[in-house]
């Protein structure tokens, strides 16, 4: 997250909900998100930090979140054991 977009960011905010802070205190509205979800085999870090063996499936999620004014606000990439993560998508039409 660009520090310029999140002034007065503190440890207390990070330990709570940064999204609540962005929405309620800074009145930042999200314009969209790009999310890539893929299955992968574990790398050496997955084996070391997640306890995966060489054939344990890993779920990788990469995302970019931007504001309604088009400013990139977040880039993240997370890797999780298949047994610790699920993803649910709901689509609606207005």
UniProtKB/TrEMBL annotation:
InterPro entries: Chorismate_lyase_/UTRA_dom_sf, UTRA. Residues 2-79 form the UbiC transcription regulator-associated domain. Pfam families: UTRA. This is UTRA domain-containing protein.
């Amino acid at each position: 997250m660009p520090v310029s977009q999140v002034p007065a960011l503190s440890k207390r905010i990070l330990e709570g909900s940064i999204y609540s802070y962005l929405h309620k205190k800074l009145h930042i509205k999200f314009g969209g998100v790009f999310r890539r979800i893929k299955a992968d085999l574990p790398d050496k870090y997955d084996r070391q930090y997640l306890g995966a063996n060489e054939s344990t499936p890993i779920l990788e999620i990469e995302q970019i979140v931007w504001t309604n004014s088009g400013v990139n606000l977040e880039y993240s990439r997370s890797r999780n054991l298949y047994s610790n993560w699920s993803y649910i998508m709901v689509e609606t039409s207005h």
